[in-house]
Amino acid sequence: MKKNVKPGAAAVSFLVLLLIQAGNPANVSALQTHGGPEGLYAHQGAHLFLVISLVIFLLNIRRLQLKRYKAWRLFSGGAFLLAMWSIWAFIGHVAEIMTPESSFVTLPGHSVPFLQVGSWRDVLFYFVKMDHLVCLPALLFFYAGLKKLLSEFSENGTQ
Amino acid sequence: MTLWSLSPVWFIDFSGSLGMIVVSCLCLGTARRINRKAPEHALASYLLWLSAAIFAFSISRSLGHIIKHGLYFSGYSDTWRHLSPVSGSINTLTFVVIGAVTLYFRQIETIMNRMSRDRDKITVFSRELLELNRDIESIVSERTRVEMGLRFAHEIRNPAMIIGGLARRMDKNMPEESPDRERLKQIVDQSEKLETLVNMLDQPEKKSSGKFEALELSALVEDVITIVQDEADRKGIIIILDRAPSPLTFQGNRHLIKIAFMHILRNGLESCASGDTIQVVTEAGERTVIAKFEDNGPGIPQEIADHIFDPFFTTREGSTGIGLPYVKQIIEEHNGSIVLSSSKNTGTLILIRLPPLLGELSRQE
Ligand SMILES: Nc1ncnc2c1ncn2[C@@H]1O[C@H](COP(=O)(O)OP(=O)(O)O)[C@@H](O)[C@H]1O
Ligand SMILES: [Mg+2]
User: Fold this and answer.
1) Which CATH superfamily is domain B211-354 in?
2) Which of B31, B232, B242, B275 could form a Cys-Cys staple with B51, CB 3.0–4.6 A?
3) Reported ipTM
């Protein structure tokens, strides 16, 4: 691995890119002029790719019997939840498409819209939109695993 | 038909997004601290990459959601229609990055396995080195004892001889009835004992075989080749082992023999150039086991080859020239022989013969 490539820097430039894009709507519309489905297909494909790679990651952890270590138990918990989330979000996008604009109503005196729940599909949409209930715990697992590793690295020096 | 307020959904979405940003920052910070603790550790840098990917994902997705809510409440919902595909695309990229990084885990595993294998190798080598050191020490102390005995014998021989000779002469010339005769006889007897003792000390001491054990020549040669293989690969020199089909057992000190073979192979590696070959053959000779080391390197000119087993003779700058004499000493310590034949441009052949383990030989016959 090249030493001069800093993942932190890479992440920050990603963030900067995002901010520039977000603050510059003219540029945005230049980039995305038509709302074709290919963007969504790519997005859904990425969700599936993420699930597959996380499953492979989990299988590798199991094959190497890394579950003996607490940090790896936490990492695999995080990977499992993140995979669940990815499926969850995949379903969410499908529900989004299936739910017409007309299902949302704004009532006077309420700033947040309401959802007309008429079928299982609407119920699904309602719950599936709360995906942070899965992905935030996934990140917390990952964070706990890192914490555990950090304390182990501190104890054993650079072993 | 019922109406469900989206407030809980939006609340979870908004606070969850903030939470994602906070936790992913914490992850990245922790991964950086791990990396600082163990900068060379493959796993540490892998986790840093994974954390960075998760960080990019969280920031991109959460900022998108927060901006969406912000725009809604400030009445710019339409702007979100433009922003949404951008945010979505960036999110797409970040999923792919996380997926790619998690897939890379297999690679990390390979690297870590290789590292732990190397660590095991180093442990084995250092243990062997320690044992070798102990063996050399015991050989040196054995030598010192023998040498002291020899010196002692040398110093004492002359006085003992003189006393004995004089006493015998006096004994011959002394009249039969002399009262001192009995005492003189005792002096002669004792000095004879002294002379025997001196002669005993003077005898070359039998080789100690305390550290000797039954060894298998081909396996030993193979071990040594494994040790120098990396060096050979780096230099582009090919080492070929042609091992005898049946085991070649002999009596010896594992470490010393390994050292001797290693010296020979090292010399070959130091002399040969990329593309050259060192061929190592083990075979059974007539009442010997044989190890042949043959290279097609530059060879040794006759005038140098004549002195090659003389201590401190070297053609290499900064070298001790103690290699081959030491090798010869080790082989002779094992009652073996070493012959070098070489000429310029044809390469070098070193032939080592060692006496086989007699019990083994008779069992095979
Ligand atoms: N395989 C070889 N091919 C060519 N020259 C050799 C070979 N082995 C030994 N020599 C020559 O013999 C010399 C003495 O070797 P050695 O006793 O091992 O001492 P050193 O390696 O310390 O110089 C070397 O300097 C080198 O010139
Ligand atoms: Mg040498």
Assistant:
1) Histidine kinase-like ATPase, C-terminal domain (3.30.565.10)
2) B31
3) 0.77
